[in-house]
Amino acid sequence: MQQSLTETTSYPEHRVRRGHRPVLMKRAQFLFVLALLAIDGGVTWVSFYLSHAILDANPDVGIGPFWEFWPLPAVYTPVLIGIFFVQRMYQRRRPVSHLDEFYKIVLFNLFATLLTVALLTLGLPDFEYRRSLIIFAAAINVGLLTVARTLHAQIQWQAQAKGVGDDRVLIVGTGEVGQMLLQKIVLNPKLGYHMIGFIDHAKGDRTQKLLGVPVLGTLADIPWVIEQYNIDEVIIGLPESSHQELVGIISLCEREKVGIRVFPDVFQIMASEVGIGDLGGLPLLTIRDVALQGWRLTLKRGVDIVLSAIALVVASPFLLLMALLVKLDSPGPVFYIQERMGLDAVPFKMIKFRSMRTDAELDGPGWTRPDDPRRTKLGSLMRRFNVDELPQLINVLIGDMSLVGPRPERPVYVEQFRQSIPRYMDRHREKAGITGWAQVNGLRGDTSIIERTKYDLWYIENWSLALDFKILIRTVVQWVFGTNRNAY
To answer: For the residues of 300-367, what is the DSSP string, one character each?
Structure first.
């Protein structure tokens, strides 16, 4: 189903850089953090100045000159920076979600406001400050910090993509997982990783190259390779290894003081949060149930009803227009009704705008592919922007689906996947969704079902209303800009 990496990706001839790591690289990383500290401090003072200017422009307020209120930004700034530091807001070497950062900026500014008021009340009891001044400043600070940090992130990631301040990476494992990790690194240069080579856990043939990247040795060579090639980070891509083997590999890496990341055997730990209980005094390990229950289930269903109803009303003129265009574009029905597996693996009829010819499945079901000849002229555009999925709002309203959840598959595929993918059926313990965590991370269409299942299980295990809204916002952005990968 998913093409091999050697078929889908070609890499340029790899050049190995030996010698001491350039001082410029480490200096660049320090400068990125220093610039972010300067941005946070400077923007906070500007926010207080703007807040004062807004209040001062109102003659009814009668606020004094700005210098009389200097203790407010003087306390608020280090408090906010301290909170950011403790919450690891300055460790952003890798791309982070701007939406997640916005949530944190809002929350941490609220905490900084409360702490500042408390500290000034205790430390300067005679100091008179205006509540409106600090409230306005906090609100302005949220907006300015969001914009400034977003710009800083884009500049940093673009610099890292060009090799400024990047990390030299060694992947342990030359199998499918190791090659998948390489693909992620190469296709996402803004991660700031510079791929140096592989460690083959078996033969270690140093004349061998995988996708243009050299194999530098075996497991026993790890300490030498790390020192010789000035490795910053080691990624272990051997999920099938035993715990004893994994500990041995980690101990080899730890000798050289490098960062270590491990690609896990996700089906053993992904959705298995363990708790300790007892049975009449006998201790038992309890694996967390992945199904939503109680008020969470009611809350999620309530949000689905409200948002799907609003969306159907607002989008009804557009839906009518699309129905007319589908009818004019090619002969056949407007809607395509297909059986999919939903909650508890119960089949339901999923509604879509028809984007394929009526004879598209004469030879049986099949995955769509780039430049699929079965698509109609309008269908290719609809699928790119996911317009064909909009009628599923009806499925959400009547309760067959949810706005957010694992994407439903056809029964014929479910039967195949359940035989080969561990814990695949756990994703059917929640309602299927129009969009999901896997989809907003690029795993849609003809992509790895194993990877999709991992993301689906993570979503189910870590569900929250905030996560649902985050996924919906990212989905809307991807729809508007047509940035869905594998949307064909």
So the answer is: HHHHHHHHHHHHHHHHHHHHHHHHHHHHHHSSS-SEEEEEEE-GGG-EEEEEEE--B-TTTTTT----
pLDDT digits (tens, 9 = 90+) for 222-281: 888 888 888 888 888 887 777 788 888 888 887 667 888 887 665 444 444 555 554 445
Asked if the structure places residue 14 within a domain, the reply is no
- State both tokens at 243: 């715990």
Residue 338's DSSP bridge partners are 350
Q: How many CA atoms lie within 13 A of 224 on its CB side?
A: 7
Tokens of 400: 């067959």
Q: Are residues 395 and 350 in the same domain?
A: yes
306 domain-assigned: yes
Measured from the Cβ of residue 137, the count of other Cβ atoms closer than 10 Å reads 29
- Whether the per-residue pLDDT at 408 is higher than 80: the answer is yes
- Reading the block at residue 324, the tokens are 């007319």
What Cα–Cα distance (Å) separates residue 226 from each residue in 19, 110, 197, 249, 252? 11, 44, 10, 13, 10
Mean pLDDT of the 448-475 span: 87
- The pLDDT of residue 369 is 64
- Containing domain of residue 211, as a range? 166-263
Is 388:352 a contact under the CB 8 Å cutoff?
A: yes
Assign 73 to helix, strand or coil: helix
State mean pLDDT over 385-403.
92
Whose CA is closest to 233, among 168, 177, 174, 185?
168
- 101 and 123, same domain (yes or no): yes
Is 285 within a domain? Answer: no
| Residue 182, domain CATH | 3.40.50.720
